[in-house]
Each structure stands twice: as C-alpha cells, then as structure tokens.
Design brief:
Elements lengths: L1 H24 L6 E7 L5 E3 L6 H10 L4 E10 L2 E10 L2 E8 L4 E6 H5 L1
Parallel strand pairs: 1-6
Antiparallel strand pairs: 2-3, 3-4, 4-5, 5-6
Length: about 110
C-alpha cells in the first residue's frame, strides 16, 4: 500500500513539473529583427481578421496558445507596423511586427527622456 502511495505522489509531482514548464513557455522570448522608436502612439485600430498572413503566422509560431484580442496598424516612413495585443492564458502582452512578420522591439521616446 505504501508503494501505491509513493507511485501516486510521483505521478502527481511529474504532472506539476510538466505544468510549470508549460507555463514557463508562455514567457517565450522572440527574436527581434529591428528596434522601433515611437514618438507617440499613433496606431489606427483594425480588425484582427485584417492582419496579414505573415503577421498571424509569426504570432502562431511564437505563441501557440495566444488569442489575438486587438490589432492596430501604423504607416511609418514607408513601412507598415502592426501592434497586436495577445491574451496568453490570462496574461496580456503587446507585440510589434512589420508586414513581413518580423518582430520589432519598441522603445518609447517618453521612456528615454526619464
């Protein structure tokens, strides 16, 4: 009977460790192609369904279980930039991508002046 208790405890520990690993993957790092310095938040809201396929594919590749809640677009020096709000199992995250699906790191002018 003690062996059964130990086996069940070991199985429970295994599943707890597996769940912790899955939750850690939610915080996945993305490889940033370039940096973006924005002076304001001049994005125009668009429908999530209007996102280009490359942007959607990049999000699904990096964040498999993410739900895109909102999408915005901005034309910046002949470049189109998308701001996407994701729901990652209850955690909200904002990401920036170009039209080709490359990740962009955003730096705010407000943050630089502080």
């Amino acid at each position: 009977m003690k062996k059964l208790g130990l086996i069940l405890s070991a199985i429970g520990l295994f599943f707890t460790a597996a769940q912790a690993q899955v939750e850690g993957e939610v915080q996945a790092e993305v490889e940033v192609e370039k940096e973006l310095v924005l002076e304001g938040d001049e994005f125009e809201k668009i429908e999530v369904s209007a996102l280009p396929e490359a942007v959607t594919a990049a999000i699904l590749t990096q964040f498999l279980d993410a739900v895109t809640t909102e999408a915005f677009v901005k034309q910046d020096d002949e470049e189109v930039i998308y701001k996407v709000k994701l729901d990652l199992k209850g955690q909200m995250k904002k990401v920036y991508l170009d039209a080709a699906g490359n990740w962009i790191k955003k730096e705010d002018k407000k943050e630089e002046s502080n």
